[in-house]
């Protein structure tokens, strides 16, 4: 990396890592809490209670948990380049991150189904979505904190080496 770019990256790493981890707390805590909040959607609730619970769950998902997921992913993506972490444990981590994103979307889907169809689509027992969320979370934490040497896995070279590709347009030179 160019020296001045490397200096900027080193200054920015703690800020991006702090943003990554702070957003993760909200994201991971939030998607673990969502199944519990969903379980409170009981068709026998009064209309007002149902509406209140529905609004709280919906707002938590849309204005807290999902934006936190976006911040975590964006900050993490910058960290890949700042830390030059194009290594096997990262690819393994990204596989489990994809599963976590899938679980996040699934919980969003349950939320819509439960909120829109009172009494028809009851939420699943909370332990099932919590398990689906917890498993990739634990795998990610083991990978990122242990940074195991996975070099014995044969990754295709397009994943491990720069492709020396050029941008499809001219970049002005100074
Ligand atoms: C697209 C999503 C993500 C990307 C691209 C990403 C990428 C990264 C990168 C490159 C680092 C820096 C590693 C280092 O400094 O050696 C990092 C740190 C970290 N990530 Fe992520 N991450 C993502 C999602 C997650 C998720 C979902 C979790 C937890 C459930 C997580 C937990 C952590 C932790 C705990 C650290 C600090 C590790 C350390 O400093 O040693 N990340 N992440």
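-> sequence recovered:
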């Amino acid at each position: 990396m160019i020296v001045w770019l490397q200096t900027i990256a080193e200054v920015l790493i703690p800020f991006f890592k702090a943003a990554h981890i702070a957003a993760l707390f909200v994201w991971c805590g939030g998607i673990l809490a969502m199944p519990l909040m969903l379980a409170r959607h009981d068709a026998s609730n009064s209309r007002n209670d149902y509406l209140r619970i529905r609004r709280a769950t919906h707002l938590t998902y849309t204005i807290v948990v999902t934006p936190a997921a976006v911040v975590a992913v964006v900050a993490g993506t910058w960290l890949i380049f700042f830390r030059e972490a194009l290594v096997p444990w990262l690819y393994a981590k990204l596989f489990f991150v994809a599963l976590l994103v899938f679980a996040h979307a699934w919980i969003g889907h349950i939320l819509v189904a439960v909120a829109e169809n009172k009494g028809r689509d009851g939420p699943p027992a909370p332990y099932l979505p919590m398990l689906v969320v917890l498993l990739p979370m634990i795998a990610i934490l083991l990978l990122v904190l242990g940074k195991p040497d996975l070099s014995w896995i044969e990754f295709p070279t397009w994943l491990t080496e720069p492709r020396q590709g050029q941008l499809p347009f001219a970049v002005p030179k100074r």
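Residues 3-39 form the longest helix (37 residues).
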